[in-house]
Design brief:
single chain; alpha/beta; six-stranded parallel β-sheet; globular
Amino acid sequence: MRVEALLALGRGEAADAAARAAVEAEGDSLVARCALAAYQAETLGRLGTAAAAYAIALTLGCEEPALFRFRLAVIFRTWGRLVEAEEQARRALELGDFSPHTRTLHDLLARDRGQAERLQAESRAVPDFAPEAWQAANQARAVYPQVAGPSQPARGRGAGLLLVDSSFPSRFSAFRYGELLTYLYAIPESRAASSLRDIDRYRPDWTFLDELRQFEAEHPTLAGRVQALNTGHDLSAEVLHTTFLHNAAVLLASNPDLRAARFVFTLYPGGGFMPNDPVSDAKLRRVLGDRRFAKVLTTHTLQRDYLLDRGWCDPQQIAFIFGAVSPDCWDVAASARCSRVGRPLPDTIRICFVAQRYTELGIEKGCDVFTELVRRYTDDPRFEWHYVGDWNAELLGLTRVDRVRFHGVQPASFFPDFYPSMDIVISPNQSPMERDGGRGSFDGFPTTSCVEAGLRGVAMFLTDSLALNRRLDGTHAMEPGVEFELITRDVDGIADRIEFYAGDREALRRLSEAGRLAILREYSFERQMRPRLDLLRAQLDAA
């Protein structure tokens, strides 16, 4: 048990020495325990412990060396140790690992390195004074500094604010793009280090260098302020910032190359946060117990109360801002163009359901309730029904229904034209947390799709069984019955409200306009970004 105890304490070198001393006596049993310790540590986001355990198991002679090298490659990539990650993935393939995941990871890492090497070579083919050569060389080094030759990044305490992320500078995660872009413009001593780890599967042919070149073309004054999460760079700062619990656990609290006096993170719904789940709780305790932890930003009273009830941090370490960053909501003029005031009332009420499908019938998103409404009004000419997401008529048993349209999974560019043609969005969601007795994930209120719909003048029908629609003083952030319709998963109750608005189209217009203004109010730059900027500036002043 000495090896496992040393691993649990994060003493990888001591654990390795103990394992070597014990291997003759314990043999396969010790290897198996190291493998189990590695798996458990990785599940909990303790990547340093996991990497040490995988390495010990490989040294002792495990039965699945290819798998363990693949897991090391994943960990090293997460940390930004890209040279080591590519090497481990290559060795896994040489050991006969035919998993598509291993091949994909290896090819991705090799492609990113190769692209940077080609750009660096091209920059040397033109005179040094040529602006394009200077820009190309800088972009290649921003992604893969090793292309310029071996270097030893500074190991002292860095300056300013380092924004650590796993999708920036891609626009795919619009809220993170808008939030981090604001920090870069507003805080001169800030810079970003990121990967595309969260969005690889959505844009497999698009590299970090592709994203960076597009970003710098659109924001030339920020050139040089965004780089890949690569340990060839200096990854130290006075203050670190990231979003989501999982990123805080595996990046800020686990990565030895990210060094700072303090860190801040946003505890959004999702992103690894699941109340009363042992793995999520273990990550929370470790992140909040880190000596560098300074502040956590919560977006609903549920998160704040959860932390305080368990005594995991002090009230002064918790900031609260209702809602989320939604950059589209900062464009007041664009939203005003979607207002229904002064426009002719539609003959047909178009009702939509917008959600990704994560389970067979999407009960957690409320697809079952919406589909029952569609069946109830199959032949009613007053209504037209729209699904957006991975839904189809065969799956839902709606092959003989004429007044329903399936739009499939759509990119963000689809919605600015789609929502102005809709009248009502219905979100009868029920989170896994509710279904599993208070344990599991939950959606924020309103959901992102409903915020986007409400911004464009679509009347919102929303559930709020977790009482998320609250400010710290207990008052509603958005007024039920005035700015949105508060519903449950009761089909009869929802149908009653639909009938009411079908008979009073002016009331539907008033609801949609009040909801649009409420979204602009709650998700405005002043309410969402001003306090975030103040928080980060205060942390920099205190560092």
